[in-house]
Amino acid sequence: MDDPVKAGSAGAGFHLGSLSGGATLLRLLERARSVEEIEELLLAAAVHPDGAGFARAQLLRWEPEHDRLSEVRRASGPHGSPALADFVHQVRNASRIGADGESAGNGNGAAQGSEDGGAHGGVLDLPLSLEVARLDGVCAAAWSRGGIALGAGASSGAPWPGPATGAVVLHRGSRPHALLVGEWEGDEQVAQRPAALEGLRQLALTALETLARTAESRRRAGQIAAVCELEHAILSALNLAEALRLALDVAARGVNGRGAALWLQSVGRGPRLEITHGMNGERESLGRALQPLAEQVAVDGRARVLEAPDEEPLIAAEAGPAIAPLALLPLSAYGKTLGVIAVYGRVAPAPFEPSGFDATDREFLELVADLAALAVDQARRFEMLRAGDQERRELKARARRQERMAAVGEMAVRLAEEVRNPLASIAGFARRAHRDMSESDPHREYLEVVIREAERLEKRLRESLELAAPEPPTLKLENLNALVQETLKDYGETLVRRRIRLLKKLAPDLPQLLLDSQRLRRVLQNILERSLDLVAVGGRIRVESRKSGEFVVVEIAHDGLHRPGDLLDELFVPFRSGRAGAGAGGLSVAQQLVHEHGGEIRLKSDGEWNTVIAITLPVPDNQDRRKVGAERREIRRDRRAGKNGG
Known about the structure:
Layout: H1 22-30, H2 35-47, E1 56-63, E2 68-76, H3 84-94, E3 129-131, H4 137-145, E4 148-151, E5 165-172, E6 175-183, H5 193-235, H6 240-254, E7 259-266, E8 270-277, H7 283-289, H8 291-300, E9 304-306, E10 326-333, E11 336-344, H9 359-436, H10 444-468, E12 476-478, H11 480-489, H12 492-497, E13 501-506, E14 513-515, H13 517-534, E15 540-548, E16 551-558, H14 584-596, E17 600-606, E18 609-618, H15 629-645
Parallel strand pairs: 13-15
Antiparallel strand pairs: 1-2, 1-6, 2-3, 4-5, 5-6, 7-8, 7-11, 9-10, 10-11, 12-14, 15-16, 16-18, 17-18
Helix pairs in contact: 1-5, 2-3, 2-5, 5-6, 5-9, 6-9, 9-10, 10-14, 11-13, 13-14
């Protein structure tokens, strides 16, 4: 037998004088690496003569969710006097209770039941399962005290009816872990039995606490390693989707979660489910079931941890059991919520692992959520930087293009000024020759072509010079519909000759506007000429005017086809050529003239109309544009006085 020893590393300050195998048991417990090993050692010590000396013993583990005790191990005292260390191996191989209620082996008596089978009424043939509320006798006394109890086992017919029964509650921290019950035969060392049971209780408490701390340390180490992995991934070249997928994997793995989901905020639409993690076939449906709660967390900006999600009204009742426990945390960076991360369920919780998410788990999940939020924020900032770089490159390219266009414009202006006089001479001589030529002269038609082309060139040159050096407009109140009608008359012959259908819809309620009629007529002419150049024979042109709020809109649309590669945005660029005969300077001049009137000119495609050019002119204060300085201010002052007087 081992010599009596002080509790030493057991750390409880008790004396194991009556537990003669205490030193050996203590060394074995210190090497235990699982709850099962500790239970096997305690059961072996309970039935060994150097321990509590039970003739037979059972270990029933507590199931807190059902408040029930279920037998997991049983053992009988050894034959002969084997050393405690050797006997432990026999118990380890024979003490486990199988699904059919049989022990794993005979173990030389380590797990055998009563030899006569009558002392227990056959209760050892099947594993026990007892509700705590139905305990009585020694077991009830020990459980209520949370310690040890000795005496008669229980009432007649109960599992332990013997007169010499002992029970000890094994604790894991402040919570019960199991109940160890045994029966003695004979009256040897009766006085030492209470101390032996107390020694088993204290050793079990110390061993289970040590194992729990070890498991917690391993769990923390795993979480730290997972966080370091995530940090490294965020700082690497992973894209956002890969980083967030890793964040979900790390979050679920760190708390042994069953699954996870992640939402990202979308502008004006709340959080959108982006990534799910877990078992195929259920993770998407569970993610959608959590959508209402994720939206609430995104709005509140506070984490939600639920031990019983089935009681949450925002979650469907059928999804509750599958996602318990549940934690949802906002992804917040720099005071802004960027999304939500959720982790739910437990995958076969390890011993000593809490059933829910404890403070350690929550701290870990908060860290993962912060890292995921930083990854989202970093990705968005990088996207903004890339967009800014792209915009700067486009601005530089546009500036270079405008510089080249300015140089081309200067050359064009000089060329126009140099060409204008010779062209006027050519046109003048051609007109004189045309007048002097008889109607029957076959060359008369050629001169008409020369005159017509010279006039067209003179018009283009005039527009180019006006674009380069515009004169102040001459404004007066005009009827815009009348101006449109007069302009359309100039092209009536062309429309008829080419069989182009004109769809005209002019609103009768348009107010008079302060306009330069010549310049606005030129705007309409330039747009109509370009439309006629693009519309095929038998095509359509639509002209419409209407009042839209505080603006008057004139639309000219046509169904002519675009050339491949024709860019709508470039039609207003000066000196850019369109089709033959359609000078781009026309639309650029039109745009400038409309801007002079305080309006806008836009171009789009709309269904059957391949090109729609809309001229928008403002109505408010349009009449006051003729007045300047003090005179205009006086008019406004008179209006305010009239309102106050009314």
